[in-house]
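Complex 415.
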Amino acid sequence: MPETPTPTPTPTPTPTPTQRSLAIDNIGSLITNDPTLGRGSLGIIDNASVVIVDGVIEYVGPAGALADDRIDADGACVLPGFVDSHTHLVFAGDRAEEFTARMAGQPYDGGGIRVTTDATRNMSTGALDGLVRQRLAEAHRAGTTTIEIKSGYGLNVVDETRSVEIARRYTTESTFLGAHLLPAEFEGRADDYIHLVCNEMLDAAQPHAKWVDAFCETGAFDADQSRAVLEAGRAAGLGLRLHGNQLGHGPGVQLAVDCGCASVDHCTYLSNSDIEALAGSDTVATFLPAADFSTRQPYGDARRVIDAGATVALASNCNPGSSYTTSISFCIAIAVREMGMTIDEAVQAVTLGGAAALRRTDVGRLTPGSAGHATILDAPTHHHLAYRPGVPLIRQTIGPLGSLDPIRPQRGSTR
Ligand SMILES: [Zn+2]
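Predicted structure with zinc ion bound:
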């Protein structure tokens, strides 16, 4: 084991009178994600403190730092708040009956995504907002401090726009996913629907969105249709991300790399050339193992992707049809048990990896100058996240999503 570098103690911060400082002290094992600060790739410091001033980390180092307020970690592990880079939190209803039938091996034709689309379209904006807040609170209790939220259950101009507008109230990482699936009223007219997505729908949703996304898969949209959505989004000033290679081999990964997407998500089926393309690009390979779990699919081969040199993230994909969980700890446990990832790699994939998938450098790490978003475990080390699957090990989550305050005043007349 490499020797632990001893960080140079820094003076206790002197905040301005309006800023209160917070010390998380007596940390048994601190995951910084900066190898220059501690041991191993996770940059682990034993017996540590972190001081946060005005939401920003001012000090990381040996225990005993002073501040206005103090949280005693009592020897526990502290790690960066999870960065969940793929969720579909804006929806109404659930699909428990469909899941129950699938698990029992019984045929079930209850309508699939159309059940969710109908319920979402029929719910008031206030009620939909309330559901998103509940799900965010659940995610926060499970350790998530940064979250991406997609639209994608409205599938018309009005309901896609209000979905992405609700998402934007709670996160800067809001994604327009009008090209999620073909709505029933466009059956047999996918190109017409894509034209709507790329024009009127994009124009209406764009003010509330940071990202554009599409579902490039057999049964959803083909490579040309998905490329059209990405190019229109880029022209409108949005960042690009893509769903691909969930249900089989397909063009999604190559398209995402070609277009310079920040991330391509699912990656359950990857060819050698897909992996080479990812390794030679800045596109993050995001695995969504809870979806593979809930649909009895094979798991993605994260080991090969990591060994090839690509950047990997893990995310929850929280949605009512194929992955109704906000638990990043659950994703870590699956990734370690089923996808060939070490525990260190899995923990890095839900922190630094998620941040990379959102092109963020201020989250996913606990280093001076980064956001003061931390998770305190009821465990001495991060290994327990995989070693004790299903156990609620998140003692406290510090940082955004906590207050659930809208990040800016509500606007428009869609409420
Ligand atoms: Zn998704």
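The mean pLDDT is 93.
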